[in-house]
Amino acid sequence: MSKIVAANFKTNHTRASTAEYVRALDEGMGRLGYEAPVYLFPPATALDSFETAGDIRVGAQNAYPTVKGSFTGEIGLEQLEEFGIDTVLVGHSERRHILGESQSFVAEKFAWFKERGFTIFYCIGEPLEVREAGEEAVRRYLVEQLEGIDTEYEKLVMAYEPVWAIGTGKTATPDLIEATHAVIKRLCDRPLLYGGSVKPANIAEILAVPGCDGALIGTASWEVSSMLSMLETVNREK
Ligand code: PGA
Questions:
Q1: Does residue 195 have its Cβ closer than 6 Å to ligand 1?
Q2: For the chain, which residues make up each domain, given as ranges?
Q3: Ligand 1 close to Cβ of residue 196 (< 6 A)
Q4: Residue 86 pairs with which residues in a beta bridge?
Q5: Is the CATH number 1.10.287.3510 carried by domain 4-237?
Q6: CB distance 20 to 47 below 8 Å
Q7: Which H helix or E strand runs over 195?
Q8: What is the pTM of this model?
């Protein structure tokens, strides 16, 4: 199976710069002969249906479990369907910890978008104090983050993102990723990405970890040259 690579823009890029990024990414993928899908999660204001030669799939970083309605500041299915978007990120640690999304709300969102056939990138991962409490504490934490989630959903892509490694420059070691991925694979047998400070300098060793099916990349994906350098590595190592 080819590796799954996804770029999470978070609150970066505008509508104009996203369009330029997609153009440059598509051109670069053509140059590299990169044929596997690349998922892109731009901010809501930059969602669009892009015409590309390469397999670039645009998803939403977040959406509310509704077709439309009175949910100030949120977008629903109607806004996604306008652009043919059928991929959504659910359970990202920034939404859990900064925006206060509870496990029950995350699970409700998952079920709602599953019902509508969405591809769901579902993120789990422990904060530093749980990691420091040891492996059993991590396992229990991850089990809780899977509560209410249909782990057999065929359009589910899992992402293990230890909170202490996100945006910190601190990457989990290959051994730690391998051990934690083995724990998660026992709980959920779906493709499993790693996320947390993945960058051009470490993507090869991360993707070489047994049980790692791809990468969810934040910071290092925001510059298209950096993203393309990672795709070049993925192409070479496949
Ligand atoms: P990062 O973010 O690559 O900046 O650590 C990853 C993520 O949050 O998905």
A1: yes
A2: 4-237
A3: yes
A4: none
A5: no
A6: no
A7: strand 192-195
A8: 0.97
